[in-house]
Amino acid sequence: MKLQTSGIDHMNLDVKNLDESVQFYCDLFGFAILKDQPKAKSKIIGNDAVKLCLYEVEELQLTKEGPGFNHFGLHIHNFKDVQQACKERNVSIVNEYEWEKSASVYIQDPNGYVIELAENFGGGL
Question: What is the CB neighbour count within 10 angstroms for residue 81?
Fold first, then answer.
């Protein structure tokens, strides 16, 4: 028997500034605060399809060296609006790709985490 998956359940991310990070994700993606965990300096945000658990770590040091987290992807139903939504919020696009069955735009959150915004779920595979 194999386990069957239908998508990413959640991602836990360490962030330098919890309030700034919550604002970024809620403003750009329309996420809501689902649970406030003040003792842990943490909030769970998201919607029915995506959950992010953000933990404030003020001394967070993000580097590109060594193994570790690379990026996470979100399927965007209104992909045609990605460019405009980013422009309106001064979110820089760091890369764009046209794949065989999809397209992707890559941005960074305030902590430097790379987020792939995908036209087709799973790259259309």
Answer: 11
What is the residue whose two structure tokens read 């397209």? 103
Residues 111 and 13 sit within 8 Å (Cβ to Cβ): yes
The β-bridge partners of 48 are none
Please calculate the CA angle 37-41-67 and round it to the nearest 5 degrees. Answer: 115
Note down pLDDT in tens along the chain; length 125 residues.
Answer: 665 776 777 889 999 999 999 999 999 999 999 999 999 999 999 998 889 999 999 888 877 666 667 789 999 989 999 999 999 999 999 999 998 999 999 999 998 899 999 998 878 76
**In order of start, what are the domains of the chain with their CATH numbers?**
11-59+71-124 (3.10.180.10)
**Amino acid at site 9:** D
Residue 27 has, within 13 A of its CA and on its CB side, a CA count of 15
**pTM (2 d.p.):** 0.81
